[in-house]
Amino acid sequence: MLAVTLSWITLSSIGMLPFVFGGYVPTVADAFFETVSGFTTTGATVFEEIENLPHALLLWRSMTQWQGGIGIIFFTLALPQVNSVGGSSLYNAETTGIKHERFLPRIAEVARRLWGVYVGLTLLLVLLLWAGPMNLFDAVCHAFSCISTGGFSTHNNGVLHFNSAYVEYVLTLFMFIGSINFTWIYMSLAHRSLKRLYREEEFSWFVGFLAFFIVATFLWLFLKNIYSSPELAFRRSIFQVVTLTSSTGFVTAENVNEWHSFFFSLAIIMMTVGGCAGSTSGGFKIGRFMVMVKNLSNEFKKRIHPSMVTNVRFNGKAVDTDVVIQVLAFVGLYLGVIIISTFLLCLGGNSFLSSVSDSVTCISNVGPSFGPHAMNFSLAGSFEKVVLSLVMLAGRLEVFTLIGIFVPSFWRK
Questions:
Q1: What is the pLDDT of residues 363-403, one digit of tens each?
Q2: Is 294 exposed, middle or buried (0-12, 13-18, 19+ CB in 10 A)?
Q3: Which of 38, 169, 323, 394 meets the CB 3.0–4.6 Å disulfide criterion with 64?
Q4: Residue 320 has what DSSP assignment?
Q5: Do residues 337 and 365 make contact, with C-beta atoms less than 8 angstroms apart?
Q6: Are 141 and 152 a contacting pair, CB within 8 Å?
Q7: Membrane-crossing residues (predicted)?
Q8: 310, 240, 300, 233: which is closest to 270 by C-alpha?
Q9: What count of other Cβ atoms lies within 10 Å of the Cβ of residue 404?
Q10: Residue pair 381/291 in contact by the 8 Å Cβ criterion
């Protein structure tokens, strides 16, 4: 836990040096925020005028997200010299989900194969974007940001700059892929079959989750006449739902604040739940959401039939009670960090809506917020940026890894 946390903090501190030495940010807090946002694949930025930055720095921003997507520690595990026993401990501290399913005995071999899938998908996305209206530089940067579910762009108005339905649909597809467990993707490619995906209950829940919010958002936008064209309303709905649930954070709405409070409520839920375990997405993951919902359903059944013995089942197998307790504890701590962060941001003079949305978007590693920070965090103070940087790290490291080192018992022998 300590090694993982220090690795992320140290590499984020080194990664911010181009921003500091180049004089592109006014304070160290801005540079640290931008770099942490990159490595954690949050995508929140302090820059108002992104197009004024040199290409080298724009590429570096996208590279931080690409590296952070697969995980700095997971990236290290792919190197041959890493000891498999020590690697397993780091893997458990850094990766996401309820349980860590491994398809090979050596964790370094697991990392190399998943990293190969990650690189292959990135190259494919570069070619698809380059075939559209993007030049090669924009295609590379957006591919890095998309497959990592990061969200950094090379233009001030992001994906809207290209005004292309083709780009939006391609990015939507790969944001969806980035929010799926990469082990499932590898297995599907290795066996040349999608049966593995269909057998995974978490995948089915994720698809159903997306479908519900896409329909709800589409009906809201269409009935409110925010978009006159049904196709445009559907395209913006599916893009915005997938980008928020996958924690990518690309924005295609000209002004997301015009989507009104109903969509904001939906967005908070999507950002909090997130994608599948073992993916590059943020949030507390759909697998934990499944366990929480099923456990709640069982509690209602026990209220009606006190003598009934029920278990939470995951992929047809009973989940240990200890795992259910861990999930509930994780969700409680996750919400606790949001509450504390909201309180600190309110102390800094932010409105309640802005503080809540900032906290949720940062712990879920999404990027866009509501209110004054809808497009960027240039107006946030240094105190707020430091707080949100720590929140982004906590979210990326699954909360327990970062928060655990502040517990006194952690340091006792």
A1: 999 988 877 887 788 888 899 999 999 999 998 888 888 88
A2: middle
A3: 38
A4: P
A5: no
A6: yes
A7: 70-93, 114-132, 169-191, 203-223, 262-284, 323-345, 386-411
A8: 240
A9: 17
A10: no
The position carrying tokens 């517990």 is 407
Model confidence band, residue 15 (pLDDT cutoffs 50, 70, 90):
very high
19's tokens? 């921003």
pLDDT digits (tens, 9 = 90+) for 48-63: 889 999 999 999 999 9
DSSP H or E stretch at residue 350: none
Res 90: pLDDT: 46
pLDDT(175) > 90:
yes
* DSSP character at residue 246: T
Within 10 angstroms of residue 274's Cβ, the number of other Cβ atoms is 30
- Going from the C-alpha of 259 to that of each of 253, 267, 360, the distances in angstroms are 9, 11, 18
User: What tokens were used for 370?
Assistant: 């509501």
Q: In whole angstroms, what is the distance from residue 41 CA to residue 71 CA?
A: 10
Backbone angles phi, psi at 313, to 5 degrees: -115, 135
Q: Are 281 and 244 in contact (CB under 8 A)?
A: no
**Chain mean position to CA 335:** 16
**Does the structure show a pLDDT above 60 at 96?**
no
Phi, psi of 248 (to 5 degrees): -70, -50
pLDDT surpassing 50 at residue 27: yes
Strands (E) located in 255-360: 313-314, 317-318
Mean pLDDT of 142-163: 92
DSSP state of 370: S
Tokens representing residue 407 in the block = 């517990």
Summarised one tens digit per residue, pLDDT across range 237-261 is: 999 999 999 999 888 776 666 777 7
Q: Check if the beta carbon of residue 106 is closer than 8 Å to that of residue 184.
A: no
From the list 72, 80, 68, 63, the residue with the least C-alpha distance to 6 is 72
Q: HEC profile for 54-119?
A: CHHHHHHHHHHHHHHHHCHHHHHHCCCCCCHHHHHHHHHHHCCCCCCCCCCCCHHHHHHHHHHHHH
What are residue 302's phi and psi, to 5 degrees?
A: -70, -30
